[in-house]
Amino acid sequence: MRTHKVLLAALSAFLLTATISPSAHAADGKYVALGDSYATAPGTRTYDNPGDACRRGPLAYPRLWAAQHSSVAFVEASCSGATTAEVLASQVPQLTADTTLVTIQVGGNDVGFVDILTQCILTLDDQDCINSVETAKQAAGTTLSPALTQTYAAVRAAAPQARVIVVGYPRLYTLQGSCGILGLSDAERSAMNSAADTLADVTSARAAEAGFTFLDPRSSFDAHSICSSGPTWVTSLEWDKINESYHPNAAGHRDGYLPALNALTG
What we know:
The chain has about 270 residues and is of the alpha/beta class. Helix content is about 50%, strand content about 10%.
């Protein structure tokens, strides 16, 4: 009789554990994506809601990673146009102590990269474009650098146990490539590439200081940049859709950013 009671107690304990465990462990970690338009869907032409200013969509690399890791809870906080200030104000608060993975891609808007592109597209003078780029590169050191330090510190404070991957920006152009003399000059293209290099230098340095991992997409994107001979991973200038221009396209997210992120996360 005593043995029977012991077996019943053991069975009850097992059933209770089996009932609790699925809900207690429903998600194998939590991934929160932070960032700007490079972390959302501009360039893919596919959106959840075309009227939503954040311009999120299913073909962006954070969504693709989340789809491949369906056991991980996913929060998409990233929003097109975001600066570090906006990431701090509205995205970092979406981090929680149980967050296990964070990607953050921000900085281009802080240095006015959209204004640079507009200047380079519209001006007939190469030097005007180059001067705009140089101004942005100076801002990367004087303004963006401390802003990133503050932002990364806030991310760590909000998600103390998370692995944080800082995602960089690609170079946009292949010099002396297939575009010939059409569009921007090679001097302008070179200047714009140098802006991506400066952003990478500043961002990777601040990431290292914070103890974060830096995902550098430049080498993998170089063979697929605008004017390259291979399949292009970045949208070129599109006059009818300016806000699609100079962003990773669907292939850039799928074949560029996603494999690089998987290589770091396993």
